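fwd from M.: "can u put these together and see what the complex looks like"

so here's what she sent:
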Amino acid sequence: MAMTETGAALPGIRAGAEALIARKRLIALAVPAVVLVYLVYVVFAFDIPGLASRARMDNAATLVADSYSYKTHVERNNRSGEMTVAIEGERKGTYAADAWPDWVQRAPGGAVVDLGGGYRVTMGGDGAGEDAVRFEIPGYGTLTIVSAPSGVTLDTPDGTVPDWINASGTRVAVTTPAGRLTVTKARSEVFRYFFGWELFFFTLDSPFHGKSLATLADLALWGDRVRPGTSNIEAMASDFWNNQMWRHKDVAWALFETVLMAFLGTVSAAMIALPLAFLSARNFAPGLAVRFGVRRVFDFLRGVDALIWTIVLSRAFGPGPLTGSLAILLTDSGSFGKLFSEAIENIDERQVEGLRSTGAGALQRHRFGVIPQVAPVILSQLLYYLESNTRSATVIGAIVGGGIGLLLTQAMITQKDWEEVTYYIVLIVLVVMAMDSFSGWIRRRLIRG
Amino acid sequence: MTAAGGIKADYMAQRRRRQMYSGLLLVIFAALLVSSFRLANDRNAGGFFEGLHRILDFPAELLTEAAQKIALTPANLARFLPALIETINIAAVSTLIGALLAMGLSLLSTRGLALWPRAIPLFRRMMDVMRAVPEVVIALVLIFILGGGPVPAMIAIAFHTTGALGKMFSEVNENADLRPVEGLASVGASWFQRMWLGVVPQVAPNYLSYALMRFEINVRASAILGFVGAGGIGYELKIAISWGQGRYDAAAAIFVLLFLTIVAIDQISGHYRNRLVEGR
């Protein structure tokens, strides 16, 4: 009987299998095709062909160069003949007049700047109302640029202007591998590039600037007190902490604020969501209406995105970490409520029944029958959100103006402090990774018991 | 009798100690929470209790204005629809690209499947770093180079998605059955063929489910990135809000669009995810 039945059904099974395979083959071809069509549509919708013309590759080059190097400006004011040597051209990084770096030498009416490798710029007035800048370039010759009230004139050794010199009647810019020179009527400037982040530890006004590690250790351990009344280690710590160029103090506070936002928001959201989750779990809801109502509240909190909450809250509380943590709190109460109530619905009812049979009250049943079962789920979600919210807090900080997000946007707006932007990015990534391993560590310890 | 009494006393002592420890932990935790709230409150521009009664002022302003100009709502909704589509497109493309890259990276970093087993730690670290970079960081840098628009947001979200999905995918890969892979290896299949025909069919439902979840997250992220300068509905929202009073009807329309979209996408993706997990 089984034989006949199989025999009769075989063609049917075979046809079914063939249809199934045909469908699978179609899907296997259709899905990549649909994806491809969609990507082509997006290429045009996002105007990617036009991107090449809009992209500012010079910006990218500045950004990359700036992130690992810094430049020192040597500037001569062509009206007064005054010289300034400053790191990044910033007031905070200006060298004192008697403490110039050794590659800048004072000369009558100006200075001689040795750019290394035979490149040398001589800036100085000739006393006749004309200010000449001579740029010696190895293998090429000497450029002479004269800036007078009437304009800027350029003399090249062979009379032609190569493409690395940009010259007009009012401005001459020379770009060489060793450094750049710009001359206008008002000022002559030389930029020399150096590798690294200058003044990261101590600014120029600190007595510890420019000392080698060995000298610093020597000073810290048994040197004479540089600043009377404070030990050298204390003075070093204070100079580093109050560094005006890199603002380590503000950065540390900003990072702390960001973590604070994440911690406060996530933990309070979980504390609010847990009791509400009981009200919206099928097996514990006091009534259908309550369950429905609480669920809609969760949906609403999640649906109104963190972006909208952030905007609404920043109107009421102003910028700062509190606004950010409240935005995280509101959004995540919704997410936690949903996740926790699902966890509560999936518990083993027998433990609760066992407790009920011993005459335990409602609160005791929840505490000893439900919480131990859902605690691992709650904890692992909480820790996961804590890590993810550290990232969200950066974004929220950029919008409301708090924490490291604010510093990052501020540094980007100036469009020149890319080394600071790099510094912040590295710190953010390190903090998020630290939070990640920290929460993973706690999870492993607590959940395994 | 005395032995049992000793056991009981021991048990009670142990219990008391445990209770004391958890009580202590709770006190420390509460203190931490209270002090962090006070710190956040102090460092905020406006305090919590001064701001609390103003929390509804802005939504109320928005709603009254939107209600006064209710006739304009359909036009506003239609006006911001293209921006909304752009936001969804950013999320979709970045999820797609991120998922494809994550697929490759996760296969390369799963023990037993990796093409170069020695490079597993390298690919893992790579995914860790990609996951740790907040989208806004990459988006802001790219906006400086590429100018505003959807592309910086797309790249930023795709970058983060690759890291986030890569981790999820490699957890899925670890549970994959290796026998099909070995079978394919025995007939001389290349690494790509072994992965595509031996592993991907097993893990595809889980991949899809995670990718859908990521899509929900990415829609929100792309709206937020719009607010910091990348294109889409977030950018329109920023403009609408900066117009201030008198033009809040536009902001209200964007809020409505954003809310409805997020709820709809959550619902649809949740539905399909449930189907994928239950296996139809």
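replying to her w this: Chain A has a mean pLDDT of 82.
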